[in-house]
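Fig. S4 source data, part A: sequence.
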Amino acid sequence: MRELPTRYEPEKSEKRIYDMWMEKGCFRAARDPSKKPFTIVIPPPNVTGQLHLGHAFDETIQDVLIRYKRMQGYSALWLPGTDHAGISTQIKVEENLRVENLTRFDLGREKFTERVWDWKNKYGDRIVEQLKALGCSCDWDRERFTMDETCGKAVREVFVSLYEKGLIYKGNRIINRCPECATALSDTEVEHSEQPGHLWYIRYPVKDSQEFITIATTRPETMLGDTGVAVNPNDMRYSHIVGKSAILPLIGRELPIVADEYADPEFGSGCVKITPCHDPNDFEVGLRNDLEQVLIMDEKARIINSGKYDGMDRYEAREAVVRDLEESGYLVSVKEHSHSVGSCYRCGTVVEPVSSEQWFVKMQPLSREAARVVEDGTIRFVPDRFSKIYLNWMENCRDWCISRQLWWGHRIPAWYCEDCGHVTVSREDAAFCQKCKSGKIRQDPDVLDTWFSSALWPFSTLGWPDKTADLEYFYPTDVLVTGYDIIFFWVARMIFSGMEHMKKEPFKTVLIHGLIRDPQGKKMSKSAGNGIDPMEMIDRFGADALRFNIITGNSPGNDMRFYAERCEAMRNFANKLWNAARFVLLNLTIEKNELPLKPETEDKWILSKLNTLIKDITENLDKYELGIAADKINNFIWDSYCDWYIELTKPRLNGEDQEAKLSAQKVLLYVLTETLKLLHPFMPFITEEIYSALPNGGEALMTEEFPQYTDKYDFPEDEADFETIMSAVKALRSRRAEMNIPPSKKPRLIIVTDRKKVFADGASYLTKLAYAGSVEIADETPDDTSQTVSVATEGAVMYMPLAELVDFKKERERIEKELAKARHDLAGQRMKLSNDEFIKKAPERVINAEREKEAKLTALTENLEASLNGLAD
């Protein structure tokens, strides 16, 4: 047992405490056959990233759960790691190269990837150290990286396995390409939004005819790639031209006119231009009708294969095409039109749908099992509404484009033979062609989508494809904590990957949280200028204050607004707890934490309240209601323990009765210790610091057993009776405050109640806490209540003689003095307002202000007169 400093200073304590946990191996999860495992894999942050509020939100929730389960006796593993983040990391390094007037092509692939590894080794630990500052109790000995040797082996195994099963293929399909990042994107990496635009109506001549058909398009530059026109087979307006050809304006290419259900008779003119290489629907129409494919944009969205427009940027080409159409008489009209536009989720650039040869994963065979495990409850979403969103996506998902035109990432394990054209896909680096044995082979230059390796995270991090002891013990994991914004990016892919390769669900529960927004509900970002650095919050208020702020505002699945000032309020809460602990320590003479054999009524009350709290907190945490649990602990510590119980024990602690003194100490210490255990998952640093100063037998609070509800300390009747007395005390204090009655005034208290024993037993609390001179329990209401002050509660009506609260002689003198002054001021005010010169010359606002003063003085005078008349002679 040691004395705590006057102030809690997190900046001096938190790193020391964290280092102590690390030195003692408190975060290590052992494969203990006598314990049940509980596993969480961290959503791996980008290796070059910095901690932002989203991370702090996500990681705090996980840390609360893992600390709770660890204290419950589980072998709790929180497996940490970072993601190589292909696009964003490569962009970051390329930005640095530009400072040196270099590009990645100047260095070459090998030297460039060396640069990226150097960057990773230099900055990769930054976010890890920030997670430690937040208090994350990860098993750092098991830390993984999505491009380490173990994860790399898993990626190769999955790719080859799916390829061998025919579930990975290379094909020419419409993909989303980001011109800025110069790579393909999967559908989930494209963010769609409604944007204002235009609809251009263009006349296409029908060959060998005087007839024209009108085409409407939002992207006129893509007409350079048109190879057909479609009309609906049921649209009689155009049945006579099906089988004929239209002439593409500006280019002169003949376009077969085909009948296809895709054409909507209700949209525009009912005729649709078909650009197979630049629209996913047009691509399918082109395949059905054997239309030519003409690619008109390169990877940077510059025009190709289009004559004089070649080399133009897509938007430059749009202006040129529209201008030429107008000059040639082909442009009919232009109308404003709002439509959905897809943008790169990384850089925000508008993506271009282009046909390209890429690697894909066949989704339909994999999605069936991934849907089943959610439908039958094997995997549960919290809140449940997100399961419907997930299942809807699974039902409609397209094949997943997994190749990326980058240099940083898992390179696709496919080699092309220059002699026979065979593609060798291998788990090991290939040295020769599997078919003809030629050594003239070259590896596919593309890398895999970052999410391909992330999809394997729950089992690759545990050693798969090897059958490791960790994999056998800790898989499947228990809870995945993540935001709703990456359900499709990550959650869905982990589920179908786990079911395909492990034949077992990757986790049992998906706990979904929302986004953190600013006080106005806007999304936080650097560009918007409303971002908040969590490390700054930690430096100012301590990690515990930030964590508690985040958790108390949390409701599963919903966005939360972050108020920086609430961190200060949570620091005040920490200070309240600290001061309570100092009070307890300053009054302790005992060296052992045990309860008294015969607790007093107030002891039974706080013990029963604590017991109920333990039950509630356990239920809330098991239901993932972390915000509700945190609020309950806050209220118990602040109100029940600090404001009430500590005050109730002071007479015993300061009294001469040694047995009563020791009894109060024991309960104070016991309740404080158990409360620290309840609070520890939420505020680990301050609870550990206080616990280390208390008389206890444990080496660290975080390894202590989480409190359990017990019938032994269940005193519902005693608790209810004491709450009745507390209610009476609160009501009496409130009434005295309204009347400005000082504590020195101690009137008789007459209580009319059916609960005579409760109030008789609680009389001492009413004298100590409600400043009653004496307590009388009466059967009937006093005869003359006009000379009393009455206070009603749910259990009684209480009366205090007015004469014992007020000195009538002094009160009459005070009121007469104030009344004389009020009358004098009122007379002067009325004299001013009766002055005609003042009324004529003064501005209206001044006159109104003076009349308002008169009204107030009149009201004050009348009130004082009423008070004087109300006093007894």
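Fig. S4 source data, part B ends here. The chain has a mean pLDDT of 92.
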